[in-house]
Amino acid sequence: MRFAVLLLLSTLTLHAQQNPSTDKYRPRIHFSPLKNWTNDPCGLYFLNGQYHVFFQHNPYADTWGHMSWGHATSRDLLHWTEHPIALPEDPTVMMFTGSAVYDQHNTSGLCPAGKAGCPILIYTGHQPKAEGRPRREHQNLAAALDRDGLRYRKYERNPVLDENREEFRDPKVFWHTASNRWIMVVSLADQHKVGFYASADLKSWTKLSEFGPAGSSGPNWECPEFFELPVQGGANGDTRWILKIGMGDNHVSGGSGEQYFTGRFDGTRFTNDNPPDKTLWFDFGRDCYCALAWGNQPPSKGIRMLGWMNNWSYAKDIPTAPFRGQMTIPREVSLIQTRDGLRLSQAPLLGKPAASRKLAISEGRGALPAGAALDLSVSPKSGGQTLQLQLRNAANETFAFGYDAEKQEWFADRRQSGQVAFNPKFASRSTAPHPAGAPWSMRVVIDTSSVEIFAAGGQVTLTDLVFPNQPWTTIELAGPSAAGLDMQITRIQ
Ligand code: FRU
Fold first, then answer.
1. Stretch 477-485: mean pLDDT
2. Residue range 391-397: average pLDDT?
3. pLDDT at 13
4. Which residues lie below 8 Å from residue 471, measured CB to CB, with a gap of 6+?
5. 370 vs 163: which has the higher pLDDT
6. Cα angle 10, 294, 174; round to 5
7. Is the pLDDT of residue 10 over 50?
8. Residue 151 C-alpha to ligand 1 middle, in angstroms?
9. DSSP bridge partners of 259
10. Is a pLDDT exceeding 60 seen at residue 223?
11. Which residues, including other chains, have CB under 8 Å from residue 117's CB and lie 6 or more apart?
12. What is the mean predicted confidence (pLDDT) over 62-77?
């Protein structure tokens, strides 16, 4: 009997849900750990109807340290179940960011006996500098032990790729069908480069090439992501490779952020479509970093990705408890032909809505269901006019966003949005130019402590954390086009 009770208790702990009613800033539809710190998502993979997300996690505190891989799964990308730590830190090595593959034919020989294939996690081992030993980063493997991918065993001959480097991290690994082998992309962070490697068995790696510096070079390059996408609106069968890179600082909107390159990959080398000084930004807000794609996801016209919704400039100070850090809404990212060239377009993945209605606006105001997670669709009847929208709460705090026709830019302004003073770098107004020929529509995902704007038909995204002292209750409209707007509001949860 005692055994049965204990078992029940541990299952409850394992599947404990996040609690928006007691944790003021707990998101309703975004993943956040039950408690303590998270930064990057890592090792994303899809298997048996489940989306696995691992995350950079400090199991002991709400600040960075003791980096381990936490683990959560979801079937609908809105409800998450947290599981025990998948990769705990080793005595002198922390578990840094990486990726996951499904080793279908057990090329690694690491899948448990009797299994045809299994998920393999590829992570960076980070050995901090200490007396008598240098800082060191290398790449490592861990194989899933069970069908549901809940338990992992680190490979006993780790590391599998070690060049005695101090800045060598965040491996992205995938199966490259054309050359019939595994490819790894790793950042040489301080050199603003990534390295490409190949392997037949995930255990022995040969260097192929390097790419960079190009585009924007913050103090480091990290969290590379690399995948092929069909060109929407291009010739039949036309594809391009996308190389996405995080930069710890110097993002166009301030602090950490991400850029991407479009180009070709011949199995050895990546060739940029654009001149080396051209920078394409992945998101124009303050809080989208280290966005990674699920491995083993079913093919579609786009790719599903998820980022850390935060910024290294102030991540350690954000006023949430008992957790610190959350992920962006998962996004479907596709590649489209535009007047300016090939560009990414993003759409939030929100599943089936709980309820949807036309937003009733009178005298420029509409009531919002307080505390709910919302999907707001805004379609101006005629495009190109100034559009100013504002979320407001009972404390008179506001989050302003929209389109400025004079400057031809989209904007997101959180300077009056509630708690902003916890770090001088947090209060901000971010802007993004309107891409030539793009639609004027806008979709906005609003959760307890974030606003994610998908403007210009998804070609512009602005992702921002917000910490209002009370929930948003009203949306207000201003500007010349306020009368000619269609607004739809969907309650997601
Ligand atoms: C990016 C990053 C990665 C590293 C991890 C450590 O946010 O710096 O490069 O692997 O965080 O937590």
1. 68
2. 97
3. 36
4. 370, 371, 393, 448
5. 163
6. 120
7. no
8. 23
9. 245, 281
10. yes
11. 102, 103, 104, 105, 106, 111
12. 97
Count the Cβ atoms, other than its own, within 10 Å of residue 425: 13
- 98 Cα nearest atom in ligand 1: 10
CA 460 to ligand 1 center in whole angstroms: 25
Per-residue pLDDT tens over the stretch 259-284: 999 999 999 999 999 999 999 999 99
State the Cα torsion 168-171-176-179 to the nearest 10°: 20
Residues with CB under 6 A from ligand 1: 39-40, 56, 67, 96-97, 124, 169-170, 222-223, 290
Maximal C-alpha separation, the chain = 72
Beta strands 442-447; 450-455: pairing state = antiparallel
Residue 162 burial (10 A CB sphere; 0-12, 13-18, 19+): middle
Tokens of 379: 């379609």
CA of 413 to the centre of ligand 1 (A): 27
Task: Give the residue, 217 or 89, on which the prediction is more confident.
Answer: 89
Active site residue 40: yes
Q: Among 274-278, 347-351, 415-419, name the one with the lowest average pLDDT.
A: 347-351
- Pair of tokens at residue 236: 């039949």
Atom of ligand 1 at shortest distance to CA of 170?
Answer: 10
Which of 23, 40, 62, 413 is catalytic? The answer is 40
Q: Determine the distance separating the centroid of ligand 1 and the alpha carbon of 233, expressed in angstroms.
A: 36
pLDDT in tens, 77-111: 999 999 999 999 999 999 999 999 999 999 999 99
Predicted confidence band at 9 (pLDDT cuts at 50, 70, 90)?
very low
Mean pLDDT for the chain?
92
If one counts every other C-beta atom within 10 angstroms of the C-beta of residue 191, the result is: 17
Structural tokens at position 394:
């009972």
pLDDT digits (tens, 9 = 90+) for 327-338: 999 999 999 999
Task: Say which residue, 441 or 484, is predicted with more confidence.
Answer: 441
Work out which ligand 1 atom sits closest to the CA atom of 67: 12
Residue located nearest, by CA, to atom 6 of ligand 1: 96
Tell me how far CA of residue 308 lies from CA of 57, 258, 352, 389, in angstroms.
Answer: 12, 11, 24, 26
Question: Within 10 Å of residue 250's Cβ, how many Cβ atoms?
Answer: 15
Residue whose C-alpha is closest to residue 96's, from 147, 142, 40: 40
Selection from 116, 108, 175, 115 nearest residue 142 by Cα: 108
